Amino acid sequence: MNQQEQLNSARTFMTTFHKNDYSGHDIAHINRVERLALYIAQREQPVDTFIINMASLLHDTVDSKLTNTEEATYKLRTFLSSIQINHNDSEAILHIINHMSYSHAKEHHTVLSKEGQIVRDADRLDALGAIGIARTFQFAGAYDEPMWIDEIDYQSLNNDTYSLANLSPSAIKHFYEKLFNLKELMHTETAYAIAKKRHAFMQQFVRQFFEEW
Ligand code: ADP
Ligand code: NI
């Protein structure tokens, strides 16, 4: 199989996997991450664009929220070998997918390859901005969480000394526990420039949300 055929097979594998997902990991999310990652890759050469493309397409087929991680990794490794991805490329792709998540990074500090950093940046960019806001509320709905519930005012919430441990789960809490932190965690300059705009838009959204609340 040539690389184009391998990418097509990965796309089919991914499409089957995410077909019925409405928790924020739908096929459209994967397509956006792929496009963002390839856009960043173009501006951050030299990098292995094939690895970036494969890892983007497959990055959410191994997610502890969605699946049993070991079983999913085994299935993915078997799939990669079935489409004749060589051992080194296969391990590079799996390493990215198994180590790129926010929760994993917080606990382990595994250093990602340049390709992995780009896929992670792309995935994180899709958690920001208008799409990021929409996905957050979709996720909260899918997991039976409210938009917001606590009777804390905007000023107190935005005070640096405020402890988020006091908040019960909600979509708005997610902005403070994760989304507002992502901008400073971008690896590439290209992603950082996009993240700054999306971050500002989310801040404006949350301010307005509290005005209406
Ligand atoms: P990905 O693996 O694509 O980065 P996640 O599994 O972390 O995505 O989350 C999917 C989407 O749901 C993201 O937009 C994320 O910000 C949002 N999300 C994750 N956890 C929560 C939560 N506890 N409450 C609300 N939204 C969440
Ligand atoms: Ni993702």
UniProtKB/TrEMBL annotation:
Domain HD/PDEase: 22-137
Pfam families: HD
Record's protein name: HD domain-containing protein
Superkingdom of origin organism: Bacteria
